[in-house]
Amino acid sequence: MTRHFSRIDDCLDDVITRVGPRLTLGIPLGIGKPNPLVNALYARAKANPGLKLKILTALSLEKPKASSDMESRFLDPFVARVFGNYPDLDYVQDRHKGQLPSNIDVIEFFLKSGDYLRNDYAQQNYMNSNYTHAARDMLIQGVNVLAQAVAVRERGGRTEYSLSCNPDVTLDALDLLKAKGQKAYVILAVNQELPFMEGGAIIDESMADAIVTDPACTHTVFSAPNMKVTQADYAIGMYVSTLVKDGGTLQIGIGSLGDAIAHALILRDRHNDAYATACRKMGAPEDNLAPFRQGLYGCSEMFVNGFMALIDAGILRREVFDDSRLQQLLNAGKLSSTIDENTIPTLLEARVINETLNADDVAFLKKFGIFKEEVTLHGNHLLIDGQQIGLTPGSTQVHSAIQQHCLGTRLKGGVFMHGGFFLGPRDFYEKLHKLTPERRAGINMTRISYINQLYGHESLAAAQRKDTSFVNTCMMVTLLGAAVSDGLDSGKLVSGIGGQYNFVAQAHALPDARSILMLRATRQTNGETASNIVWNYAHNTIPRHLRDIVVTEYGIADLRGQTDSEIIKRLLAISDSRFQPELLAQARAAGKIEPSYEIPEALQHNLPETMKDRLASLNKENLLPDFPFGSDFTPEELAIIRILQRMKESAEHPLQLVKALVTSMTEDKDVPAAWLERLQLDHPESLKEKVLRQLFIGNV
Predict the structure, then answer these.
(1) For residue 305, which of 219, 434, 422, 420 has the smallest C-alpha distance?
(2) Fewest beta carbons within 10 Å, which of 35, 171, 405, 484?
């Protein structure tokens, strides 16, 4: 029986009474954590050494924090505006400080990227699990409490609950617990700020042991502001967009590269002439440059803002249905979403329905809107509006009567987006709140085992996920095709495997799918430029036998089915030309390429300026904005950020710092008063404030 609590503490009293003093708490990754409840339980364990608490989770998020006085002047007002009353997780703060009590363990299977490289505790307590194995591994760790923030709505006189942003692991964990005959105390904590999502996210309250409606559980949802999309990002996005087939399936991730792909797809659809011209100049494939006639279907572990932009643009519109037979007929063009006189004969011919309709047939036809909801089966006939109609739709008379009285107008139950969890900027959440009923029904937030793997639903997944582009990001690629995405050769984890392996494996299992791994050709390390395409690396995320397509800002390398020497040549062709000679020499020394091979002259100009020249026509028409989907920063703040970045660079070079200070005192620079006011430097009083003001002015 579900118990309802209006206070967090009353719920925790009940948990400890029923479960005991050894609690293994499973909470979702990302924004689905019930932070106030977790903090209250953490505080109890911290104050009581007799209470043993193990937290199993991933991607524990925290508000940005300033590392200097100047950063604080800029960041604090922004954080207050964007993150509102979002409560940071206390265990995150203590873990950063190395102050977790001995009776508390925190285990994560995905870390916030780069944040814990120097945190020995987090590295030692990382659980290396595929996303699809997270629920299984939580059970292995002994999870006995599951807690999650949920959305709520009143509908038809009933209170409904939604797992909202995180049905991903929770649904799988609940099923596994039931299958194994194990028990966990399940808590749903209502956060009124979470968007209510449908599909698999709707959860019956009987699944919960406790529902908490404490007002403290309602708070601002953590947002991930849009990142600036660089020219290199746009080049990668443009190349990837030419690999996406009309009528196909798309998986992308969060961040500037995901935004670049989404924006490039919108350019392809809305500014096709300019898009196609730029693609040809870039030397991109020309098979998929046309606007979208059929549209795309999204199937991605992460439902991100880029997908919402594609929905708004009318590109993400290809609906899929929860029946492999029906989906296959749609894929073959034998059926359309519009119901007409050919619908029933086509279903009969494909033996989807029987020659004499039975109860299952009628239920199927009503489920997908082929029959009106009012149609019922009574004995040996159909009944609607007093009309009795026979059960043999193959006969002319019955078919005519069915067509006249029974048929709907359009297939229902179609979904154009399957997602496991979501995270994004503030306006993304606002759009989710304001979705029309039709659009909301078209987005199915569901379990990660459905999205990230094929097992158990192979036929349906293969039918729905036709022509899939599985697009993911990596940090490095070796010249033999292995990818490094989650960790370093020291054994340190940067982030985690997440679902990347799942999608790569799917790309090789589905007959018409491709895995596309993106990376920027170079990176900056301690002020030096280094290549992200390397000869070898002692840590791999995706092994070389699963190599497929690799994309950098310099082009596309199709590696599937190729020999090692050919793979080396193709990856050299998309490497930064400053590193091509050294990479080629390493391949020669290893005997993996012919000694006589030379990189063609046309491929020896992979440089930042060449890449920008290829995008020049789009930039000239202002089609590549820094923030294609908007920004939480105001234009004034974006201008200040650029100056603060210069100040940070100057701080690393003392002579530049002195030069900036001198410049501010000797040159009459016109600095908008609003910029100084925004940094609280419009009326400096202390010597420190006066110096900061002058340094800021000197970097304008």
Answers:
(1) 422
(2) 405
Distance set, CA 258 to CA 227, 580, 632 (Å): 10, 27, 17
Q: CA 225, CA 631: separation in Å to the nearest integer?
A: 7
Reference 77, options 672, 637, 682, 691; nearest CA is: 637
Instruction: Give the bridge partners for 552, in sequence order.
Output: 555
- How far is 567 from 557, CA to CA, in rounded Å? 8
Sorted by sequence, the CB contacts under 8 Å of residue 618 that are 6+ apart come out as: 234, 267, 274, 275, 278, 624
Please give the C-alpha separations between residue 394 and each of 245, 321, 350, 370, in angstroms, as whole numbers: 37, 25, 13, 16
* Statement: residue 664 has pLDDT above 50: no
DSSP secondary structure letter of residue 233: H
pLDDT, tens digit, 9 for 90 and up, residues 348-386: 999 999 999 999 999 999 999 999 999 999 989 999 998
Q: Report the pLDDT value the prediction gives residue 281, as an integer from 0 to 100.
A: 97
> Taking the CA of residue 677 as centre, how many other CA atoms within 13 Å lie in the half-sphere pointing to its CB?
4
**Separation between Cα atoms, residue 460 and residue 463, nearest integer Å:** 5
Please give the helix or strand (H or E) that residue 211 lies within, else none. strand 210-212
What is residue 65's DSSP assignment?
Answer: -
CB 213 within 8 Å of CB 4: yes
CA angle, residues 52, 45, 133, in degrees to nearest 5 = 55
Res 697: pLDDT: 82
What band does 653 get if pLDDT is binned at 50, 70 and 90?
low
Residues 6+ apart with CB under 8 A from 426: 82, 223, 632
* DSSP codes joined into one string, 445-456: E--HHHHS--TT
Q: Beta strands 3-5 and 210-212: pairing type?
A: parallel
* Long-range contacts from 522-526, C-beta under 8 angstroms, 24+ separation: 522/576, 522/578, 522/579
Helices (H), 256-333: 256-270, 272-282, 305-312, 324-331
pLDDT computed for residue 661 by the predictor: 46
Within 48-119, residue ranges assigned H as helices are 69-83, 90-97
The 10s digit of each residue's pLDDT in 582-621 is 999 999 999 999 999 999 999 999 999 999 999 999 999 9
Tell me the whole-structure pTM to 2 decimals: 0.94
- Give me the domains of the chain, ranges plus CATH numbers: 3-217 (3.40.1080.10), 231-319+416-611 (3.40.1080.20), 324-405 (no CATH), 635-698 (no CATH)
Helix H, strand E, coil C: the string for 481-529 is CCEECCECCCCCECCCCCCHHHHHHHHHHCCCCEEEEECCCEEEECCEE
Share of the chain above pLDDT 70, in %: 97
- 302 three-state secondary structure: strand
